[in-house]
Sequence to fold (202 residues):
Amino acid sequence: MKKNLAKSKKREDILAMLDHLIQYHGETMAIPMIRVDQQDGRILYTCCLSTGFLQAMICRLPRNLENPEGIQRALVTKKVSEIERHLSTERYGMPNAIVITLKCAGSRFLSLSPLDSRMGRDGAVSVLTVALQAFRDYLACCEVDADGYLTAPEKDLLGFMIDGHHRTEGAYVANKLDYLFSTSVYLDLDLRKMAEAFAGIN
Fold:
């Protein structure tokens, strides 16, 4: 697996995935989110996100020679190939959650609005609104390298993968862009808190 595939896809591939999402959802996408109370002070929600969403908008931070401060283990081709094979040939489920953090604070493309709760807790249910078309327009103007990869995916994309990059990559390779993953979503974690979350999971 090429090193430059580690953080994100080529910009043209990301734009194609965003076009796919726009075709299905329109210019904006609304995602129901349920807050999960934690004891560590971090804000955590759970929802369903597709392979296409996770591959187009979320930056991975695997550890490798180019990125020794990365969060996840380096991508292992064999693991990705096994997941791709299962998704391509069998009825296959992956109930364990993907874990990401979204950069909501001050974002032009993400907003979170609470709904009236029927669960007895204020703000227990919220809607994440994603400005798909505006994000696509922004990304189309972002700088890329000679091979077509974003030069600053950490800055340009809307969040970071904490856990699950093998599963989402396997689904992408299997061309399962609409495959839904149970996803745990933190808001606005810095690198230290992302690393702590990953260590806690594993």
